[in-house]
Design brief:
By secondary structure, the chain is α+β, with helices and mostly antiparallel strands. It has 13 helices and ten strands. The chain folds into three domains: 113 residues, Orthogonal Bundle (Butyryl-Coa Dehydrogenase, subunit A, domain 1); 114 residues, Butyryl-CoA Dehydrogenase, subunit A, domain 2 (Beta Barrel); 145 residues, Butyryl-CoA Dehydrogenase, subunit A, domain 3, CATH 1.20.140. The structure holds flavin-adenine dinucleotide. The site of flavin-adenine dinucleotide has 23 residues, from strand 1, strand 3 and helix 13.
Amino acid sequence: MDQAQLVDPHTEIRDEVKKLCARFPGEYWRKLDEQRAYPTEFVRALTEGGYLGALIPEEYGGAGLSLSAAAAILETVQAEGCNGAACHAQMYIMGTILRHGSDVQKKTYLPKIASGELRLQAFGVTEPTSGTDTTSLRTFAKKEGDHYVVFGQKVWTSRAEHSDLMLLLARTTPKDQVTKRTEGLSTFIVDMRASLGKGLTIRPIRSMMNHNSTEVFFDNMIVPAENLVGVEGRGFRYILDGMNAERLLIAAECIGDAKWFIEKATAYARDRVVFGRPIGQNQGIQFPIARAYAQMRAAELMVQSGLAKFEAGQTPGEEANMAKMLAADASWAAAEACIQTHGGFGFAEEYDVERKYREARLYQVAPISTNLILSYIAEHVLGMPRSY
Ligand SMILES: Cc1cc2nc3c(=O)[nH]c(=O)nc-3n(C[C@H](O)[C@H](O)[C@H](O)COP(=O)(O)OP(=O)(O)OC[C@H]3O[C@@H](n4cnc5c(N)ncnc54)[C@H](O)[C@@H]3O)c2cc1C
């Protein structure tokens, strides 16, 4: 047993999640992948098990667990070959309502999110023209009496077709009328059930993997003023407040992916006999897997360091960013080693390697790309000039 497992306070959660995941084997995910369908039964099982409400405080019907417990849940989901991307956003999006929402919003939404009555899976930030340059987004929400009227477009809004609510970031003051470009953006809870067909259009995007991503169009969509989260114009700050938790949770998922690939690769390397001996006897096969394992363990320590800082009430910006990058790199190294170890069979759907390989690639780009993490480290940690 390794050191991390010796001190792991979440072994019970991991064991329970593992049992749940065993009900959703590779063939379940393969079929969904083929049909680009949503894992409704899996999401329901996670919700009923209380896992998606892990971070919602008990007073609002959640489990009131720590971020490291939530990370353990998502890591286990990935390590067991399942895909938390279908629902992981709910864990961190609801944090915006929890931290900045009104009492009424918290009482209205959080218990229903915890029970699964409402899904808050959609996060509308990225737009086609602004991309990573979030403060240049163009979706505009104009206040008219007791409501806002929203015009604009989002892209890559994952799970919008399978969510009841969306957390939307929109401009409420034009960029040229604010002193800082981070001001004048606001966050809204959009009830998509009420708006669909009434100013809200959702179009699925077929992509490399089954991620249920969409384009979302707002054309005169009405959002009640009471759905504004916190103070108008402070939305960007609210979104940033949730980024460290988001990055640490995604990093934990990447660690889980890396563990899955490493397990799968080593098992195959031991069993597959070519030239009269297991392929795993060749150092050319061993070394990439061993290297990926070392990378994964190092990244895991960074995730733990970020989680510890977060739970001590500090701001782990440096650790969360580095954890996300290192864990995504480790999972990608493990994915490469795994597909190479499998030779031709790595490309056959029934081994699940090619599917996981496609899924793991995303985390070099989303929710934040590696370049932007490196820019963060260069500027905010190392004190070099801002490059953009
Ligand atoms: C499957 C999927 C699901 C997603 N889900 C969501 C979601 O639910 N909600 C949501 O809001 N968004 C979502 N996204 C969007 C995702 O967060 C963005 O794709 C990502 O942040 C990159 O933005 P972009 O695609 O516009 O790339 P761009 O900003 O156009 O960047 C393109 C490339 O240029 C690089 N680049 C840009 N600027 C710089 C710079 N200054 N220095 C160095 N390199 C730079 C980037 O790193 C990137 O590699 C999703 C994306 C995908 C693919």
